[in-house]
Design brief:
The structure is a single chain. With 177 residues, the protein is an alpha+beta fold. The protein is 15% helix and 33% strand. Strands 1, 2, 3, 4, 5, 6, 7, 8, 9 and 10 form a ten-stranded antiparallel beta sheet that branches. The chain binds a DNA duplex (12 and 12 nucleotides) through strand 4, strand 5 and helix 3.
DNA sequence: ACGATGATGAAC
DNA sequence: TTCATCATCGTA
């Protein structure tokens, strides 16, 4: 049985949610076509103090979704070309989100949204079957040994403390090393 | 190693 | 209104 992850899953400490998202299924439906991809790589962006997070400069038009309820999509454009897909975590008023960097065979957040044709129209929408983009638990448990923690990518500007935080979680199968 | 490519936020 | 800066990727 697969169950759709809802607010009670996302509304917890961001790094915990991020780690638990590994192995969950990202589901994307366009009409009759359904794509199911197990999540393999994520990054946590947590709270006002996190200098790598968009939220650290306060509430803005772009990042306001991060301040809202958990379980909503935060989608934005970087480098003029690629949309980044994030799921909002934490309580309302507490800005946090998790960037989905890879799922299935796809590695890289830009490639993921390009492959699925996910765009900013989903920004601020609730992850649900009705929307056509959601995450569900198919009962897969990823062994701790297969989870690799490391610093986040592309956030050197955040200063040593935040740039070095191990908020990146990668599901590395035992078969490869 | 670097350019593409455009929204964003802050300065002026 | 202008400017530097990006949670990146493909090509070289």
């Amino acid at each position: 049985m697969s169950k759709v992850l809802a607010k009670n899953f996302y509304d917890r400490k961001t790094p915990i949610v991020a780690e638990e998202l590994l192995g969950k299924n990202l589901v994307w439906r366009i009409g009759e076509k359904i794509t199911i991809l197990p999540i393999t790589e994520v990054e946590a962006y947590d709270g006002f103090e996190d200098k790598a997070s968009h939220a650290h400069k306060g509430l803005t038009e772009r990042n306001k979704v991060m301040f809202g309820d958990a379980g909503y999509w935060y989608v934005y454009l970087v480098y003029g070309m690629y949309c980044m897909l994030n799921i909002v975590t934490g309580n309302k008023g507490y800005p946090a989100a998790i960037l989905i960097r890879g799922a299935g065979d796809i590695t890289g957040p830009g490639r993921l949204t390009k492959a699925l044709r996910i765009g900013k129209t989903l920004n601020g929408k609730k992850a649900s079957r009705a929307l056509g983009l959601w995450i569900e638990d198919a009962g897969v448990v990823v062994p701790k040994k297969e989870i690799k923690k490391s610093p986040r990518i592309g956030v050197a500007y955040a200063g040593p403390i935040w740039a070095q935080k191990k908020y990146r979680f990668v599901w590395r199968c035992a078969s490869d090393t």
